[in-house]
User: Which sequence fits this backbone?
């Protein structure tokens, strides 16, 4: 039985839990990895994980380094008061990428996923299980998640050109100009062929 409370002699318990969880999530996936499994591997009581992170979802978010809550992200996109779904998705996406507090972690995530398989696995699981399904619920048709993939690919491509490669003139365009131009492409993907 794992010892209770803080691991003795280790002031870095939180970091140890994140590292252990990251490896286990990458190997077994989100659904197949329990807090008890992580606690056993880290040699701590499961209550310590809840103390530091609150829930499995929050621990998973910490392992990925995700800088925003996916439920709040989804709620803003699904809030029908602010234009079409394409407009809301595009605006929220660019707000996250243009704010320095969220841009830096998003850049780190994107770079890490491009060069490190474990990071790519975690990011893929996070996106597929915690973000895309929320957006897909607002769409009709059998290929809703595929259409979300295409729309997000459009937006991520712009973010990549703007913030990683810094290709001009996209790198220096005003955010509102990018939003105005990207919305129509995002709308085409979300609506899908024959659904407009």
Assistant:
């Amino acid at each position: 039985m794992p010892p209770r409370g803080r691991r003795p002699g280790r002031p870095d318990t939180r970091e140890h839990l994140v590292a252990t969880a990251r490896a286990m999530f990458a190997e077994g996936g989100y659904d197949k990895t329990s807090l008890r499994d992580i606690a056993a591997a880290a040699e701590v009581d499961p209550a310590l994980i809840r103390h530091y992170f609150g829930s499995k979802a929050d621990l998973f978010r910490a392992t990925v380094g995700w800088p925003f809550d996916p439920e709040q992200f989804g709620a803003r996109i699904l809030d029908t008061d602010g234009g079409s779904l394409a407009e809301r998705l595009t605006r929220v996406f660019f707000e996250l990428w243009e704010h320095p507090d969220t841009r830096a972690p998003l850049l780190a995530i994107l770079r890490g996923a491009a060069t490190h398989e474990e990071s790519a696995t975690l990011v893929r699981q996070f996106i597929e299980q915690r973000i895309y399904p929320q957006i897909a619920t607002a769409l009709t048709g059998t290929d809703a998640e595929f259409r979300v993939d295409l729309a997000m690919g459009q937006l991520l491509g712009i973010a990549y050109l703007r913030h990683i490669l810094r290709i001009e003139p996209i790198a220096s365009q005003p955010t509102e100009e990018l939003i105005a131009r990207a919305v129509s492409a995002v709308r085409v993907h979300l609506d899908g062929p024959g659904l407009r």
